[in-house]
Design a protein that fits this description.
This protein is 39% helix and 18% strand. With 347 residues, the protein is α/β, with parallel strands linked by helices. The chain has one domain: NAD(P)-binding Rossmann-like Domain (Rossmann fold, 3-Layer(aba) Sandwich). Helix 7 crosses helix 11. The radius of gyration is 19 Å and the shape is globular. The relative contact order is 0.14. The structure holds nicotinamide-adenine-dinucleotide and UDP-4-deoxy-4-formamido-beta-L-arabinopyranose (WQD). Nicotinamide-adenine-dinucleotide binds next to helix 1, strand 2, helix 5 and strand 5. Keywords: Carbohydrate metabolism, Isomerase, NAD. Its cofactor is NAD(+).
């Protein structure tokens, strides 16, 4: 009999790719998502890619009783917890919403898990918990100091998870710190569908390439980097998803393990522009703007722990990330909505 995994936030960008990885590996999947930042069409496509079905519950993780019932009735053995709000700028404007959704939501989920005696968890944390890099590459021992409310919700949750593991030794927790996920499933059927104007680089570049935006604004070209633009560790979302599977398989020992999921390679904003131009055959007009508040010059992972502890390493190149992102954009110029983008979604 196969294991049943609960994926919170499974209709979202990373979650939909995690569902594909799980179904392809033979796991059964139940998704809980309140669709606050996603569309359930993503899950229909996941099922058609995999040729297998999953269970979807349109619900909020803060509904502890519902989660508890579901854990029991579906026979869930482990949870991959991706549900959360993730917009850094928005978190500065509405911090309490982020604490309520991310921190309180995780507390309710953990409480339901404890009651149902489901004690295996993989959690979506973020490299944003490191804050300003004091050295590079960033290893898991780097001091923590997120610089925005969103990042602080991730740090609070990480601390909570550590306390939980100390409280009794039944818990098995994989705390995954993602770097910059980009790309899409190679079918072009599932990908990132940001609401309104994308704040992240690659979705913005993709919308310029398709003609939905006139030009990219590069936030500063006077950083202390080879070409002056910011450097990040972009990781293919399919590689990231496979990291969750590796974590799930390694969580056989009690305790908590914290792991960076990155490639270990830094690429600049201009590297992304050039690579995207080359894979799409479109030009990406850009202008240079001021630095964006809170940005760092460079940020990339030391992926050694992932290799040693999870037996996982990314395999996909920057070209593949951009090519797959472009295929998704080309096939779905308006994301999951299809046709014209409804006005209400352009916030
Ligand atoms: P996403 O917004 O596409 O997915 C998150 C999903 O969670 C959405 O489908 C949303 O509807 C759902 N959700 C939010 N609050 C919920 C709630 N209270 N109850 C039920 N469902 C809820 O974002 P993503 O990029 O797929 O990110 C997934 C996770 O990874 C998030 O926790 C995010 O913080 C983390 N993360 C993302 C990145 C990134 O750059 N994308 C980087 C590091 C970490
Ligand atoms: C990358 C580079 C920008 C947009 C954010 C969150 C982080 C994590 C991942 C969740 C930077 C430059 C961008 C644009 C630009 N999310 N840029 N013009 O800032 O590394 O990380 O997403 O955990 O928490 O902060 O990613 O894609 O926004 O920016 O020049 O229109 O692209 O300045 O150098 P970032 P990003």
């Amino acid at each position: 009999m196969s294991e049943m995994i609960l994926v919170t936030g499974g209709a979202g960008y990373i979650g939909s790719h995690v569902c594909i990885a799980l179904l392809d590996a033979g796991f059964d999947v139940v998704v809980v998502d309140n669709l606050s930042n996603s569309n359930k069409a993503s899950l229909e496509r996941v099922q058609s890619i995999c040729g297998r079905s999953l269970v979807f519950r349109h619900a909020d993780i803060r509904n502890e009783e519902l989660i508890y019932d579901m854990l029991r009735t579906c026979g869930v053995t482990a949870v991959i917890h991706l549900a959360g709000l993730k917009a850094v700028g928005d978190s500065n404007v509405r911090p309490m919403m982020y604490y309520e959704n991310n921190v309180l939501g995780t507390m309710r989920l953990l409480s339901a898990m404890e009651r149902a005696n489901v004690t295996t968890l993989v959690f979506s944390s973020s490299a944003t918990v490191y804050g300003m890099p004091q050295y590079l590459p960033l290893d898991e021992k780097h001091p923590l100091g997120p610089t925005n409310p969103y990042g602080r919700t991730k740090l609070v949750i990480e601390e909570m998870l550590k306390d939980l593991c100390r409280s009794h030794d039944g818990w098995r927790i994989g705390n995954l710190r993602y770097f910059n996920p980009v790309g899409a499933h190679e079918s072009g059927l599932v990908g990132e569908d940001p609401l309104g104007v994308p704040s992240n680089l690659v979705p913005f570049v993709a919308q310029v390439a398709i003609g939905r935006r006139e030009k990219l604004r590069i936030w500063g070209n006077d950083y202390d980097t080879p070409d002056g633009t910011g450097i990040r560790d972009f990781i293919h979302v399919v590689d990231l998803a496979s990291g969750h599977l590796s974590a799930l398989r390694q969580l056989r020992q009690p305790g908590l393990i914290t792991v960076n999921l990155g490639t270990g390679n830094g690429s600049s904003v201009l590297d992304i522009v050039r690579t995207f131009e080359s894979v799409s055959g479109r030009s990406i007009p850009y202008e240079i703007g001021e630095r964006r508040a809170g940005d760092v010059a460079a940020c990339y992972a030391d992926p050694t722990v992932a290799k040693d502890a999870l037996g996982w390493a990314s395999t996909r190149s920057l070209e593949q990330m951009c090519a797959d992102h472009w295929r998704w954009q080309l096939q779905n110029p308006n994301g999951y909505q299809g046709g014209e983008l409804p006005r209400a979604r352009e916030r």
